[in-house]
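Annual report, structural modelling task.

Input specification for the uridine-5'-diphosphate-glucuronic acid complex:
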Amino acid sequence: MKEIKDLTAEKITILGGGGFLGSHLARALLERDCCKVRVVDLSMDKLPEKHERLEKIEASVDDGGVIAEVVSWSDIVVSATAICNPAVYNTDPAAVIQANFTHLEPLVKRCARSGKRLIHFSTCEVYGHPQRSPSGQILPMNEDSTPLTMGPISKERWSYAAAKQLLERLIYGCGRHEGLDYTIVRPFNVIGPRMDYMPGVDGEGTPRVLACFMRALLFREPLRLVDGGRARRAFSYVTDFTDAVVRIIERPSACQRQIINIGCPDNDITIKELAVRLREKYAAMCAVPPSAIVSVSSEEFYGPGYEDVERRIPDIDKARALLDWEPRTPIDEMLGPIIEDYVTRYAPFCPAKS
Ligand code: UGA
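The model returned the following structure:
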């Protein structure tokens, strides 16, 4: 029987708690009758306006004094800040490395020095390209045995994975040599309501695939498949993800100094299948004709220096064993609430209203 900690008296700070994963985690913690939650971020739109156990601090993690104050107040720090859109990895790698490594290095060291628990959101991207069995089959990605295989330096797509990997190595080192109490979480393509932003409405550039497709649907533009949409991703739903993270928070001993994949191997589909299912569901829900789907080359879509990951299948045996957790949401159950959320928030801003 694993020890489950009562979180009533805990003070938890979520750095980047205004973002997609951070705001869902904050809401999940507030729904439970327990801890105090502090969110540090520059934008708070995705959070409840008011809650008696929620405190919002508008600041950036690299503002002077923020990390010192956060670590001193908190029992647990969740670090969820990141630049995590692939379109930026090869267009502004310096910013990507700064946000995903440089700005967080002081946090790791301060948590180690102060004996505070750190739960760090890393990424499935650290695995890089998937490994194959001798017969050529793609193997699931395992936290403790899979080698991390990235492309050459000229493929700048890997700036993100390299920065995230270096931070993981720092955390691991501080755990082994300085006693840092940490858990590293590797999310696998988590999607859900309030993901990313809508280019031209509340952000600029190219978000991740779900937000790209939702923008195309809402603006009645074709959905663009990079290289025909042949890459595969195992998508997981955000409530399954936050359920796992709350369990990690509640199980400090079992999860101490562990790296844990959170994903849903059963939801492994091609990007083309995602586009088809999303446009059909959208057409049915909004009573519009299905949008067109077109193929573009990755060079045209992302520019030079991009390299795709063919497929990522998480090995989630460790999450199952440590957390008594199972992802529950199949793709088709995710799409309805996602579409509803995007239509509610963005339809008023779209030229062709749904
Ligand atoms: C993402 C990001 O690197 C991170 O945010 C994160 O760590 C991780 O994966 C995740 O979400 O867990 P990736 O899966 O490649 O990487 O990012 P997406 O932008 O969601 O792209 C998925 C696939 O869709 C890629 O093959 C991409 O080329 C394709 N795509 C993207 C399209 O076909 N059309 C689009 O409009 C956008």
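The pocket of uridine-5'-diphosphate-glucuronic acid is lined by residues 84, 86, 123-125, 160, 187-190, 208-209, 212, 224-226, 229, 231, 233, 271, 308-309 (CB under 6 Å).
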